[in-house]
Q: What sequence folds into this?
């Protein structure tokens, strides 16, 4: 595993299913990054009550709704400063955060607390048709977590995981047509403004997320200044 030359932070922007998580995993494995995967953090807190009527984080997520800024920022802050804080002493990728202008401004404060200055924002661009197939078609092995897709990547033997041979698979409860349409609409309404925000700061780069994995990875490495031969 290769550590980046200097400690930096990177924000991954893009609609659900654009491949942010896959590229984040690549950087973790090959370049020593840590990932603040906000979706995972929120799922860990899914039973947390956030409304007077007993509504929870999980209930809002299943409906495809974006959570209030203070809830999201609070969960991220707790993650960075809590029991898992030791995991974030290296370069950091923020995956799924920020999603609103308010969260972006809060992130600036969190970065100051972590002593991180140099940063990049990568905007993963892909059209809705591809996104729909990626989201509605994805599922994972119930044992090892290997990701598959009905349209792009089925197991070599139907019903059997290529990696561990397990025969049961899971689909995320929010990977449905109604939720996806709401998530895309919410993204366009509240998150796309961040493209202009970070562009004005001079730290945004667009990534062709419809390209092959290798091509996307090469583009990401180029933006972050990571040499291919370091792998």
A:
């Amino acid at each position: 595993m290769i550590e980046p030359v200097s400690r930096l932070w990177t924000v991954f922007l893009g609609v659900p299913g654009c491949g942010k998580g896959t590229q984040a995993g690549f950087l973790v494995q090959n370049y020593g990054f840590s990932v603040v995967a906000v979706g995972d953090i929120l799922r860990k807190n899914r039973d947390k009550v956030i409304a007077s009527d007993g509504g929870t984080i999980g209930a809002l997520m299943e409906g495809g709704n974006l959570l209030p800024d203070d809830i999201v920022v609070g969960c991220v802050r707790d993650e960075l400063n809590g029991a898992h804080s030791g995991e974030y002493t290296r370069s950091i990728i923020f995956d799924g955060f920020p999603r609103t202008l308010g969260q972006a401004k809060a992130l600036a404060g969190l970065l100051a607390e972590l002593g991180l200055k140099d940063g990049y924002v990568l905007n993963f661009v892909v059209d809705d048709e591809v996104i729909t197939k990626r989201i509605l078609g994805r599922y994972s092995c119930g044992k090892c977590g290997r990701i598959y897709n009905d349209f792009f990547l089925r197991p070599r033997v139907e019903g059997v995981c290529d990696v561990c041979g397990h025969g049961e698979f899971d689909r995320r409860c929010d990977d449905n047509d109604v939720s996806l349409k709401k998530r895309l609409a919410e993204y366009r309404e509240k998150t796309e403004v961040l493209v202009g925000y970070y562009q004005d700061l001079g730290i945004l780069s667009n990534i062709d997320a419809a390209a092959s994995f290798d091509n996307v990875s090469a583009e990401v490495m180029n933006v972050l200044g990571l040499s291919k031969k370091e792998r």
Notes: DSSP finds nine helices and eight strands in the chain. The two ends are 8 Å apart (CA to CA). The first strand starts at residue 9 and ends at 13.
